[in-house]
Write a structure and sequence with these properties.
The chain is α/β, with parallel strands linked by helices and 179 residues long. Helix content is 39%, strand content 18%. The chain is built from 5 helices and 6 strands; from the N terminus they run E-H-E-H-E-H-E-E-H-E-H.
Length: 179
């Protein structure tokens, strides 16, 4: 039995393309889907990411309390934005051996050691600098796909380019999950 656990962003929820399409890929590959729906961030969450991460991790601890991870022969954590830090921190704290997909990580994502992951980043992402994401990925041996001009949602406003970016991300995710 396999499970894919999805950790959303503050404003980037499960119905948005990166998460929705990754769920579809995971389902096709036989993963049970579990969405961790933390919420209740104050209006200043983007400006106090440490507090927002702490809130999301605490809620995740309660949501996943009692989950028997040993019954799964395949575990995939998929995080978007703040969800990348929640996925990394939760897996690290609970010593969960899982694959991780980091969709536009934030600086707090790299506060713990991360194994068996891939990451995606847009050069117009205001939440983390290119140097920070490259350094974090290099320190953890995480393959990083960089999209020129893409923002924190991996879009740039050019519909054709945005579709191409999404297709490239999904192709890489599909390849990673298939390994």
């Amino acid at each position: 039995m396999k499970i894919a656990v999805f950790f959303p962003g503050i404003g980037y929820r499960f119905e948005r393309p990166l998460l929705r399409e990754t769920m579809a890929i995971a389902e096709k590959r036989g993963y049970e889907i579990l969405c961790v729906d933390y919420n209740g961030f104050d209006g200043d969450a983007k400006h106090n990411l440490d507090a927002a991460v702490e809130t999301a991790v605490n809620q995740t601890e309660r949501i996943l309390d009692g989950k028997d991870w040993s019954k799964f022969n395949g575990i995939l954590f998929v995080g978007k934005s703040i969800g990348t830090s929640v996925a990394a921190i939760y897996a690290h704290r609970h010593r969960i051996n899982c694959m991780k997909i980091l969709l536009t990580p934030i600086p707090q994502t790299f506060s713990v050691e991360i194994e068996n992951a891939i990451a995606f980043y847009g050069t117009s992402d205001p939440w983390i600098s290119r140097n920070q994401v490259e350094d974090g990925c290099r320190k953890n041996s995480i393959p990083l796909s960089i999209f020129d001009g893409a923002n924190h949602s991996l879009i740039c406003g050019d519909e054709s380019k945005d579709r191409k970016t999404l297709d490239e991300v999904l192709k890489e995710i599909n390849r990673f999950i298939a390994e």
